[in-house]
Amino acid sequence: MVNAFKVLSHPIRFRIVEILASGEHRSGTLSDAITGNYGVSRAGVSKHLAILRNEGWIDYHGDASSRWYFLTSEVWSKIDVDVSWLKYLWERRSNYIGE
What is the pLDDT of residues 29-75, one digit of tens each? Predict the structure, then answer.
């Protein structure tokens, strides 16, 4: 599993997650929103959708001609785990200073 921050570090994946946070959207709608603003092809958008899906962040229903993408419920726990780890390190930062 890839760190949540790594998944979100790419602006296209971040934007896809941001759009899907408002609800499910058709693949064509997502592609139109991304290609117009980021200058990437539909194939490029598909690549980022596949990465998000392989990491368990998004899923879809429908068939190849009409796919509706949505965020999975696991996305929030993935983010929480990585944020909790950073918070843990932050709270114990004085233990690492000077070592």
Answer: 999 999 989 999 999 999 999 999 999 999 999 987 889 999 999 99
User: Contacts by 3-8 with C-beta closer than 8 Å and gap 24+?
Assistant: 3/82, 4/78, 4/79, 4/81, 4/82, 4/83, 5/82, 7/51, 7/52, 7/55, 7/57, 7/78
- How far apart CA 52 and CA 59 sit, in angstroms, is 8
Show the domain range for 76. 4-96
CATH of the domain at 63: 1.10.10.10
The one-letter code for the residue type at 39 is G
